[in-house]
Amino acid sequence: MTLDWNCRFPENMWFGKYLNLVFFTYLQFIQVSLLQIGPFQAHTEASKVKVKIRLNLHGLVSVESAVLINDYQRNGSSTDHMEVDSSGDDMGHKSRSERSIQRQELPITEYIYGAMSKHELLEAQEQEQQLAYQDKLVEWTKDRKNALESYVYDTRNKLSERYRSFATDSEREQISVNLQQTEDWLYEEGDDETEAVYSSKLEELKKLVDPIENRCKDDEVRAEAMRDLLKCIVDHRNAAKSLSTPERDAVDNECNKAEQWLREGSQLQESLPKNVDPVLWSCEIKRKEEELDTWSNYLCLITL
Q1: Which CATH code is given to the segment(s) 118-304?
Q2: Which sequence spans correspond to the domains of the chain?
Q3: Is the pTM of this model over 0.70?
Q4: pLDDT tens for each residue of 230-271
Q5: Strand, helix or coil at 26?
Q6: What is the DSSP track for 135-164?
Q7: Residue 300 CB contacts under 8 Å (≥ 6 apart), including other chains
């Protein structure tokens, strides 16, 4: 069946099939595509195929659904024994017919003229994915190169200002030489390298700079960590006043140990220059505070 421009949409169309065999139905519209409905089996002479076709605002035809409708109808009789004579003959009976309608969704396949085959489509999709990956790889490489370049400039500035008191003369000299070598490499043979190479160069520099950066960062947060631990000690001592004498003495003993540990560690830390690794790290102070909290909370639970 061929559709022309004068047909009305949407429109339901009925196709009857009077042979009990498998067949195909084709719909064409201006030779743009070919729509195949089926295959399917018509079970009765009254079987019909209901096809719903739509034309959208862009002038494109689509088959929304196709349903095979099988109409089963058979005659039967049901006898109502109203009166029975002595010979056993029925005096009356009533005839009726039974009807059953079954609907089956049919597969719809569209063939577009000039379109790619499945194999060609898969190849095109794979090529598109490869091109997209290459684009991402270029962006990642550019980001790594920019990160390395920024790290060189940023570290050089910090080394002469923020990190100056936390690095020894030999460390500053070694890092400065490596920064200059990396900068020269970036603008010469390293101008067009891979992402892995830029990442490797960045990691090499960080291995030299990280110890100095850790000293600086720890020095900035150590004082706050010490204040938090001292406050924790005071809070637990105050909370222990409501406990019995043995429990209160146990809390005081643990608080005294933590206070003594902090005092000795801070005195030793103050005697060291800033350009060596700390003996009292802020993370250790926080861990001591957590241990004191855990122990005191456990003691309160067992005394309830």
Answers
A1: 1.20.1270.10
A2: 11-77+93-115, 118-304
A3: no
A4: 999 999 888 888 878 888 888 889 999 999 999 999 999 999
A5: strand
A6: HHHHHHHHHHHHHHHHHHHHHHHHHHTTTG
A7: 239, 243
